[in-house]
Amino acid sequence: MRFRATVENVVIFYRVIQAVEKLQRKCIIKFSENEMHIICNDDANEGGIQVWSVVKVDSIFTNYRIQSNANNQITMALSTEALLSALRSSSASASSASAAACILPTYDAEELVMKLAKKNDQAVLSFEMFGVSRTGRKVRVTHDVRIDVMRPAEVDKLREPLCPEPDVHILLPPLQKLRTIVDRLRPLSDVLALRANNSGKLQVAISTDSAKVETQWVGCGNPSISSSFWL
């Protein structure tokens, strides 16, 4: 079993894992020859949220090599927090996108290599960062993330969650404006209602014993998406 790749787009990889880490503390990553699946299933489900995402290998990685007896697929379970920490430490630009409390690295990574390894009989996803320090010296940093490599029988049990075909497709307004509204409504209620229709109307609302607030956007697009898009 062999796996090695250069993380060409560290920031995109970081942001994908950052989004998953906010939902679950553990995830499953399945690497194949052309795709990377990031999965949060029932076993790691902490709040009723499941994740099944597919990322094309060439959108993030270069020099990608994978070899295994399971049709050249390697599946592992790992901590999203540990993976996020490894990616954060590799890029100043990724770190600046995280919380302000994070400490920026004292070097800029020029290359980030990710590979499967074993250290002290423990399987790890090893990140080797090659870069230059702020004083101009060459730097090599290794960050290991503990993983559990899943057996083919366990992988076969993974199933993509079944989702009903949506009744409405609608394009959201600018996300920064939507986030501002949600942040203002959040202290007022634990439950937020979203309503949309095929006339381009989107409504965000809360309703409690003490307050009722609604915000509405009109003229949002309703794209036509065939059912094959979800397959």
UniProtKB/TrEMBL annotation:
Predominant cellular place of this UniProt entry's protein? nucleus
Gene Ontology cellular component list: checkpoint clamp complex; nucleolus; site of double-strand break
Matches recorded under InterPro entries? DNA_clamp_sf, HUS1, HUS1/Mec3
Lipid biosynthesis as a keyword of this entry, yes or no, is no
Q: Name one GO biological process term.
A: mitotic intra-S DNA damage checkpoint signaling
Q: Where is it localised?
A: Nucleus
Q: Which domain of life is it from?
A: Eukaryota
Pfam families, sorted: Hus1
Keyword annotations? Nucleus
Segment forming the signal sequence: none
Give the family, as the similarity comment puts it: Belongs to the HUS1 family.
According to UniProt, the name of this protein is: Checkpoint protein
Give the species this sequence originates from: Scleroderma citrinum Foug A
